[in-house]
Design brief:
The chain has about 325 residues and is α/β, with parallel strands linked by helices. The protein contains nine helices and 14 strands. The protein has two domains: about 130 residues, FAD/NAD(P)-binding domain (3-Layer(bba) Sandwich); about 160 residues, D-Amino Acid Oxidase, Chain A, domain 2 (2-Layer Sandwich), CATH 3.30.9. Bound molecules: flavin-adenine dinucleotide (FAD). The site of flavin-adenine dinucleotide has 28 residues, from helix 2, helix 3 and strand 11.
């Protein structure tokens, strides 16, 4: 068993140089995960000179470890979103997700990227082992609200494979994130645009519109910070510290394994547990590949042994889900 994500293992990405001189760009993008690479790609397409800088290697941090379900269904349910922010805002949040998936599909087609992009249904299903009657009514309501707000959602008495009550969301998607981003990032260098790795933004001079990177300076007209986490200490310490107190680092456990072809339909699944379990199935040549995860918890909140226990539970549940067919 290896602990390297399948995407990193099977899809190496070429190395980009380390910044070793002063340069200037119309737009500086800090951080080369899916956010930074997408922003830099779109800006370059729109005619800007872009500098994309990455502290480590491109698409290797969160983006290299994602399970890459492409779905507009948010972790907080639509009913809850509507209660918190009103129906219009809840609807807008899901529509933004749907538009993002459409945009990825458009880019995949336009750039002819072979990244296993596929439209698949997604199932939010009742927990394995819980009273499905209780959950059925809440899932029905979730499906009704989603359908009323214009989303292709339907309640099912029995989701495929799990045979549990569920909401089926049509037209979600999945892809291989590093195959997709490897193609996107390759289009950025050239004609005054750059990608640099091992090049962390270490100090901003706001008035001069420049950032220090490896003891050199990048001057820019505009900057996009796509670091996922705030650049603590690079902005005002008070602001950074206040924001930091609202953020927590979380750990998730994910297993990937081969199962015989056709064991589980190609789809996305997640359940109503808190934290939820998530599952995706990819058809491969001669077998299906199952990616199964969950058991999220605040990093450090669980001591070492409960982390081990979580992983053990995860392995057991994966084995149950796959009818003991994991090899
Ligand atoms: C196990 C797991 C499963 C997930 N599953 C899903 C899923 O199914 N669907 C989904 O939508 N999301 C999922 N996510 C979340 C998703 O992967 C992330 O939200 C997404 O990849 C974040 O992308 P990003 O570009 O914003 O950040 P990142 O990928 O974290 O990229 C930020 C980059 O900024 C760089 N950086 C930081 N500081 C600096 C600096 N000072 N200078 C230069 N560079 C810097 C970092 O090195 C990093 O490469 C999952 C995440 C995990 C961990």
């Amino acid at each position: 068993m290896t602990n390297v994500p399948a995407w990193i293992d099977d899809t190496p990405i070429r190395k980009f140089p380390k910044l070793q001189r002063n340069i200037s760009a119309d737009v500086l993008v800090v951080g080369a995960g899916v956010t930074g690479i997408t922003v830099a790609y779109l800006l370059k397409k729109a005619g800007s000179k872009v500098a994309l800088i990455e502290r480590e290697r491109v698409a290797s941090i969160d983006t290299g470890h994602t399970t890459a379900h492409l779905t507009y269904v948010t972790d907080v349910g639509l009913q809850q979103l509507a209660r918190n922010f009103g129906k219009d805002h809840a609807q807008a949040a899901w529509e933004a997700g749907a538009t993002a998936i459409d945009e990825i599909e458009r880019i995949v087609e336009q750039e002819e990227i072979e990244c296993e992009f596929a439209r698949v249904p997604a199932y939010l299903h009742a927990r394995v082992g819980a009273s499905s009657k209780k959950e059925a009514s809440s899932l029905k309501k979730e499906a009704d609200v989603a359908a009323r707000l214009g989303f292709d959602a339907a309640y099912l008495n029995s989701a495929p494979y799990f045979n549990l009550p569920a909401v089926r969301f049509a037209n979600q998607a999945k892809f291989h994130p590093r195959k997709y981003l490897r193609s996107l990032v390759a289009t950025i260098p050239g004609s005054g645009s750059h990608v640099f790795e091992k090049s962390a933004a270490s100090e901003f001079e706001a008035k001069k519109h420049r950032v220090k990177v490896n003891r050199n300076w990048i001057s820019f007209d505009r900057v996009v910070v796509a670091t996922n986490n705030p650049l603590v200490g690079l902005t005002g310490m008070t602001a950074a510290t206040l924001l930091q107190t609202k953020l927590s680092l979380y750990t998730s456990y994910v297993l990937g394994a081969q199962v015989p072809t056709g064991t589980i339909p190609e789809a996305l699944f997640w359940d109503t547990r808190e934290p939820y379990d998530y599952l995706r199935i990819d058809k491969r040549s001669g077998f299906d590949y199952v990616v199964f995860g969950g058991e999220d918890h605040k990093t450090g909140a669980d001591h070492f042994h409960s982390g081990r226990l979580a992983l053990h539970r995860r392995e057991r549940r994966a084995a149950i889900h796959c009818d003991g067919l994991l090899r």
